[in-house]
Every structure is written in structure tokens, then in C-alpha cells.
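Journal club prep, notes for RB
We'll compare a predicted complex against what the paper describes. Inputs for the NAP case:
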Amino acid sequence: MRAIQCQAWGEIDNLALVDVPPPAAPGPGEVLIDIAAAGVNFADLLMTAGKYQERPMPPFTPGFEAAGHVRAVGVGAKRVRVGDRVLAVLDRGGFAEQALAREADTFILPAAMDFATAAGFAIAYGTSHGALTWRAGLQEGELLLVLGAAGGVGLTAVEIGKALGARVIACAGSAEKLAVAKAHGADYLIDYRAENLRSRVREIADGGGVDVVYDPVGGDDFDTALRSTNWGGRLIVIGFAGGKVQQIPANILLVKNLSALGFYWGSYRRHRPQLLAPAFAQMFQWWESGKLKPRISGRYDLAEAKTALRLVGERKATGKIVLTTGAQ
Ligand SMILES: NC(=O)c1ccc[n+]([C@@H]2O[C@H](COP(=O)([O-])OP(=O)(O)OC[C@H]3O[C@@H](n4cnc5c(N)ncnc54)[C@H](OP(=O)(O)O)[C@@H]3O)[C@@H](O)[C@H]2O)c1
């Protein structure tokens, strides 16, 4: 089968399209999937650079999420059957024509959801759903500030914030990106490269601040957002796409009764797997009712994975980029 292989940690050019044997038959609790599409994530760049929290030794195939038909199921698989249309979350291996997934990480798709949409759905929406509900307890009417609001996870935070009844301020680095955030429901827009984030928040909040900050960017933007929160605010640390890991001043947490919350969605697959099925049920229901409108800004053949990853690394993607294999 065709697969993208990371042959050495480092540059995107260390990736190659190779022909490899397909995975072995699924073991107990596993599912083998014929992949139609795979979602591209910023974390694929981190993993192939050897900078992700998990560092597999090359050669390996990246790709944290995929969608397609179930080709075979292992002993003990109960929910998923051969022929089902599914999405799956993977430790890696999605940039290929087939992959093995744990049945527990595999979810049957709504009948109307196409594979490209499904391939980019799980991580982006799952992360924002978990972060805003399980972790931050976002309430109706609260003011939510989303950094990187036109990116993969950021745009889903805008939509899920709206689905939960919050008022949403979207921050992004260009007018085009802000237009995307607006089209997905953002109430207020801030170009945080051109405007003063803190004073714009104060203006929008009538002299006050925000209740929840959702931050996939990190660095100085987090520091400014921290100073733009209300008493009792919650800040969710999602990632560091800007490249700088911020230090959090405990004195400000104390004085304003703030909570800084780390959130790593993938770890719930191992620590709280029972939360995932109800979360997907709610997100699929929101999708069916039109509250979630996944954006795919680029579709590329598997062979063009490097081009797709470059777009993400160069900050040119909005919503999700997906790779397709040609399978239907
Ligand atoms: N904690 C979790 O469970 C979890 C789950 C998924 C993703 N993540 C993390 O969240 C972050 C975003 O992931 P994603 O897949 O949504 O990525 P993405 O689609 O590339 O979005 C990242 C956004 O960050 C902003 N950004 C600021 N500086 C950047 C830079 N130097 N390079 C690239 N983007 C930059 C960009 O928006 P502007 O141009 O508008 O600033 C971009 O839209 C990553 O760090 C990823 O590892 C965490």
C-alpha cells in the first residue's frame, strides 16, 4: 500500500511516499480501516520534527486521524462491523491507505457525513468540545476569547462556544482569517497582529474582561489574554503553535482567582475513554442540526502530504486540510 514515511526527524523534506506492506490482521480490540481521507494536524509537524510529546523512532507513518470503511475487525470488537463507515483517532499511521485503530477510538459516522469531513473532525472538534465543557465548564452567556480562531482547533472552538451559548471573540492574524471566523459564528473579531488585544477586549466587554480563554497559540498572546480575564476566569492551554511556551505568573492567578487549565484531548483516550462516545454523539448531533460546519480549506492526494504540511507550517491553512487516497 502507499504510505507517507518520516525517514528522519526534522524537516518536512524528510517525508517520502513509499510502498509498504499493509498492516497485519487486527488484533484483539482492533479494527483495520481502508482509509479514504486523513486529517492533517499541526501536531504532525511536531511529531515528524521529533518535537511532539510522543517521539516514535523513524521510519514511521504520521497521521493522527483518518476516515474510511472498516475492512476487518479483531476478536472482541463489539460496536464496529466490517463495512461500517468510520472515523478513527490514531497514535500515528493515518497518512496511508490502511491503518489499524483501537475499536475504542473508532466511531461510526452519521450517514450523511463524507469521508473528507470526517477525517478532519475528531481532533479539532473533540479538543474544543472537551476543553470547553469538561475542563472550562463554559456557561451560556459567558464571554469566550479564542486565539488562532481560524485554525484547525480554533475554528471549532468558535463554533462549539456558540453551540454552548457563549459570546465569542475570535482573534486571528489577518482580515481573511477573521472573515472565516465570522462566517463560523464569531460575534467579535480582533486582528491580534494589527490591533491591541487588551484594549479591544476591554472595549468589547464594556470595560471588563473575558470569562474563558482558549489558547492553541501560546507565548505573548497568552500573557495578554491572561491580563484580559475577569475575576474567576479560566484559561485553557491547548498548544504552542506560535513556538513559545509561556510561563504563567502565579500572582495574577491568585489576585484574580483564575484557573489555568492544561488540556490534552488525546490523553482522554487512555485516562477517560468512557467520555468519548457521549461527546461524539453530541458533536454528531450538532453537526446534523447544522450547528457545526466543518471547514476544509485544502484537499490533497496522499502523495502531496508535504505540500499540505507546508501550508499548515506556514500559517496559510484555515480550518482543516485533508489528504485523500482515492478510496470511496
Ligand atoms: N491539547 C490538545 O489536545 C490539542 C489538540 C489539537 C491541537 N493541539 C495544538 O493546538 C495547536 C494548533 O493546532 P492546529 O492543528 O489547530 O493548527 P493550525 O490549524 O495550524 O492552527 C494554528 C493557528 O495558530 C496560529 N499561529 C500563530 N503562530 C503560528 C506559527 N508560528 N505557525 C503556525 N501557526 C501559528 C495561526 O493563526 P494566526 O495566523 O491567525 O495567528 C494558526 O491558524 C498546535 O500547537 C497543536 O499541537 C492541541
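Talking point for the session: The first helix runs from residue 42 to 48.
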